[in-house]
Design brief:
It is built from twelve helices and six strands. It is mostly helical. The strands form three sheets. It has a two-stranded antiparallel ribbon with strand order 1-2. Strands 3-4 form a two-stranded antiparallel ribbon. It has a two-stranded antiparallel ribbon with strand order 5-6.
């Protein structure tokens, strides 16, 4: 009888470990540490494995029955016991690049494509700073975290959620911008204006050596009471990154349109990296009031409007030569 019972048990065990029919992969996220028993039962309910007890016995025999850590895990129906145990040991890692200068609405689709969160969730969270007031040591803006969500490459696994992404960006901003800026002598009251200027520099400058030069132009125009006339602010007002049509800058009614309004825009127009922030803190003293982009990603700078017009013609010829080449 004992032999027969043992044979039945062995037969059940082997049958219970047989993979189910294969299906499409999917993600599961655990926000707190879970016991192996709980996770095994959930995998049964999700159609990944046949039997929780059989999987637990197999895991004990393999010395892999420890608790499951916080993270995102990938499973699919039809996993073998070894595949399942391997998946439970290694949460999914996913490197996501958030580019410098991107504003909130431009970052959101990147996160949605990577299945980190939906674009709508990220945009909503980024416009509710009160949810993150305890994440960093300084006071956050009241209406939007634009400019404070540090651009970098992060490990952002699928299903992480918008709040966790923003927490990581804010902590990076504190370490990589706020603390270094304070060390440079910037006061908390001055910080917002520095971030606003840095956000424009980030979108206007393509080479690092020109960042302090452009910062100097911005300072000179503000000191003169001139309109900044920066295309990137118009694009932010439109919430669209594109080539502006002739005369379009004069038709966009927005406080962010620096062709229509003097002074700084009311807030940052994207997330600057430290290289642009330090340029905003230490603008070059140069006397320049104008600049025009060249096809090699540099700019021509000038102190007078007449010289600026000549530089525009030079830049246009360079663009035409490049097209003809």
């Amino acid at each position: 009888m004992l032999l027969a019972g043992s044979l039945v048990a062995v037969g059940w065990y082997r049958a219970a470990l047989q993979p189910l029919p294969k299906g499409d992969p999917f993600y599961v996220r655990f926000e707190s540490k879970r016991s192996f028993d709980d996770v095994a039962q959930e995998l049964v309910e999700k159609g990944v494995v046949r039997d929780a007890l059989a999987l637990k016995i197999y895991a004990i025999l393999q010395r892999k029955s420890r608790g499951i850590e916080v993270g995102t895990f990938q499973f699919w129906p039809g996993m073998s016991p070894d595949e399942t145990l391997h998946a439970l040991r290694f949460p999914v890692e996913q490197q996501v690049r958030i580019p410098e200068g991107f504003w909130i609405a431009r970052v959101a689709p990147i996160l949605e494509k990577a299945e980190v969160c939906t674009a709508k969730e990220y945009i909503a969270a980024a416009h509710d700073p009160s949810r993150f007031k305890d994440v960093v040591s300084f006071d956050l803006p009241e209406d939007s975290l634009e400019g404070y969500l540090y651009p970098d490459t992060y490990d952002l696994p699928p299903m992480l959620g918008a709040d966790e992404v923003i927490k990581r960006q804010l902590r990076a901003f504190e370490e990589k911008v706020w603390k270094p800026a304070i060390a440079e002598g910037v006061t908390p009251d001055q910080m917002r204006d520095k971030i606003v200027v840095a956000s424009m520099i980030e979108l206007e400058a393509a080479v690092d050596e020109e960042r302090p030069v452009i910062a100097g132009v911005i300072k000179n125009r503000i000191d003169n009471g001139d309109k900044l006339q920066i295309d990137a602010t118009v694009l932010y007002a439109l919430q669209e990154w594109k080539e502006l049509a002739p005369g379009e800058v004069d038709k966009v009614e927005s406080p962010y349109n620096t062709y229509l309004h003097t002074g700084l825009p009311p807030g940052p127009i994207g997330s600057p990296a430290w290289r642009s922030v330090i340029a905003a803190i230490h603008p070059e003293e140069n006397g320049y009031l104008y600049y025009v982009a060249r096809p090699n990603h540099h700019h021509y700078f000038s102190k007078t409007y007449q010289e600026h017009r000549r530089n525009i013609n030079k830049a246009h010829k360079e663009y035409e030569q490049r097209q003809d080449a």
